Structure formats: C-alpha cells, structure tokens
Amino acid sequence: MTSNTTPLSLARDLQDAFLRYIDTVYRLRDPELQQERRQLLAEPGRLFAEPLLEPVLPYPATVPISGATGNLTVAAGAVETAAQALLGRFTPPGHELFLREHQAIALQASLGHGDKHNVAVTSGTGSGKTEAFLLPLLARLVDEAQHWPQPAPPVEWWHSTPTRPPVWRSVRSAEHRTAAVRALILYPTNALVEDQVARLRLAFRAISQRDPRAHLWFGRYTGVTLGTNRPARKSSAALKEVAAEVAAMQTDFKSLSDRGYSPDELAAFADPTAHELLTRWDMVAHPPDVLVTNYSMLNAILMREFEDNFFESTKSWLASDPSNAFTLVIDELHTYRGSSGTEIALLVRKLLHRLQIAPDSPQLRILATSASLGPGDETAAFLEQFFGVDRRTFTTTAGVPRLPRIDASAPEESVVGRAQQASERIAALCLTNPGHLERGHSRNSRRSTRAPRMATTSPRCSNR
Length: 464
Prior knowledge:
By secondary structure, the protein is α/β, with parallel strands linked by helices. The protein has helices at about 5-25, 30-40, 75-85, 100-110, 130-145, 190-210, 235-260, 265, 280-285, 295-305, 310-320, 340-355, 375-385, 420-430; strands at about 50-55, 60-65, 100, 120, 185, 220, 275, 290-295, 325-330, 365-370, 395, 460.
C-alpha cells in the first residue's frame, strides 16, 4: 500500500476491480442495463461483505537470550547460534537478542529436562509462532552438529555436456555423517510449505556462516518436488529435464549472489549446492535433517516402497543414541478437526509406529502451533487425542501481547494524524466494546484468554 492508501480505500479499489472485471467479461450491449447490474452487485451483502479491520496486537520481546539458555539439554552456544540466525537481523549489532515470552517458554520446554517437553504455542497472529518452533528445532540440530565430521563438498551431478549426459549421484554421497529426518514439519497446504522454505533457507545459510560445522540440510517434499517416484535412470528424459532445471537454479542463484543481493532477497531462490535438497532422488538417498511436507504427501510416502529410506534411516539414527530426539512440528493445528482431523491423527500414529517411537518416548518432541486454541481442559484433551500423547507432557503458552495504551474513550482529535496512536485506538475500541459480541461476529469467543472477534459499525473490527 502507498502512504495515501487506507484500509477503506483499498477495499473500495478491490471492489471496483471486481466490478470492472464482470463488466468486461460479461459485457451487456445495453449500457443502462449494465449500469443497473453494477448497482445491484455493489449493494452491501450482495457480492461484497463490509470490510473487517483486524488489530494485530504486538508481542514484545522481553526475555534476554542469556536468561533462556540455562538448564537445557543442549549447549548455550547452540541456542545462541540458532537464535542469531532466526532473529539476529532484527537486533542492532552489539545488542543482546531478546525473545518473546512464548518463544522462551517453547525453547525451555522442548529442550529442557522436565516431563512437560511437548509444546503447543497458541499466541495470536503475527506473534512469531514459527520462530517459537524453529528455535528449539534448530538449536538441537546445531548442538548435534558439533559431533559431526567436517562437511564434505556437494556432488553436483546435474552438470552435463553435449557429449556427456548427466549421471545422477546423491548430492550428499561424499558425506560421512548419518543422514536421517531429525525433524518433520507438517503443514495442511502447499502454500504454507512454500512460505516456510524461504525462512529455512535464510536460517540455514546464517547458521553455516556462524558455525561452518553445522552444515544442515532441509528438503521440501510435495507434489511439485523435482524427480520421480522411481530411481534415477542414466540418460532418461526425466533425469535430463531435472538436471537442466537444477543447473538453471544454480546459475540464477550465483548470478544474483554475485550482483550483491541481500540474504533476505536471496532467500527466495534455491542454492542446489548448499542446505536445500531439491530432488526426490537426493532426499530419498540421504534424507534431509528437516523434512517439510504436507499430510497428503506424508500419507503417500508411508505407503510407497521407494521412500522407505526416510523411515529406515531415521529409525536407525534414533536407535544409535538414546539422546537423539525426533522433532514433530504441526503448524495450524486447529485445522485438523472433525473427521479429517481424525485421519491426520491416525497418520501421526502410523508415522510414530513406523519410526518405532512410543508416545511417551523421551526421543519424541512435539511442537504444535495455532492462533485459535487456548488453555484449558478442552485444548488439553484435543492435544492428547490428536497426538495420542499424555496431556500432562504438554506445555501450552499463549504469550503476552502488549495491549493498547490509549483510552478508547479519549477524544478522536487527540490521535488524528498520528498513525501509531490511531492504530492503537482502533485496537482499543475493538477490545473494550463487549456489547458488540452479541451481534454475531464471535467465531473464536470460546477462547477465554484473548478478546473474541467483535463487530462494530462499518468497518468491522476483529481480534483473533
């Protein structure tokens, strides 16, 4: 949005764009009839709902990283490396890094010595839930990496010449460390998977810069992943096609890097030579440390012989050392309800059975997130039923948002022209007008710890 754009003007522009589309694609010969149709479609509630304004409450970072690393099962340096990779760009150089409360609680529970080692983060939209599960996950990997041999150079099998076609050989075939899926991040949709990939690229690259020994790998395994569900055959058309695509990615990434693109900008592009496995063949041969997928693909690979090594290598890695822990991350947990949720819950049990992990095993660490769950017996029962894990092993944290500092009853003139105060006034109005709850816009009103969705006069306000 430009500086002159407001939520209401944006809503009007979107409505106008839709109406112009209808006028163009379904044009009528009679101008008066077309104008009458436009007026009918523009009536409130016919084609467009009135705008909803959602004040997203900020979650202040109040816990110093030095105060969150005590009494953990991993070294403090590993946590510091992971935290700097995830959050360091938001902290001025030379200043200590601070975590939000729910991030610190998730870190201490997941990497602590207590029985409540599984975590459900239920903080609001934009609160840093992704960092809450990535921080303990990455800290565990960085800590384990201190015992790995020096990283080996990748095998760039995709290169070819007019006289020499590409011959597949696993990117990580020169490595001497155990390959296994140490963490599985499960999403309900491919769109959420794609969003996660950029964050992982940024974090993994930053980690290796701070600690070259911690050369981690991740892979996105979905329906759009390159390669086939069969072993790569020499000189096959599929192999040549995939090789050409990976080679083009490498060329593009190097070109952008040489031109001085920032790490944030480069996070949109894959580097086939570092951190990211891009083909099914490479991931099956040497499973990535972090596998990102969706429940549909997980169900498929559990049934296919071709992907057996995902589970066999992970099972062997777990059996090799009782201190090794498999991290299962489920984002948007609230989407797994009803009959479909039952199917996913059974899928989780099937996965754990395949890896030979008991629900009460200390080698299992669960990290779940949702902005639509709250504390209480209902959520505890849901967690227990979904994962098949004793509810007493879960730590549930909603974080502490910073509430608006402006009195909602203050004169409007006192905040006109000041964007930050105007924003806080809107939030205050939505949070302090419980009478609007009766007007039918309280979809999440069952959550006792956060303000329910509320409707006001147009534009409506909501707070999730």
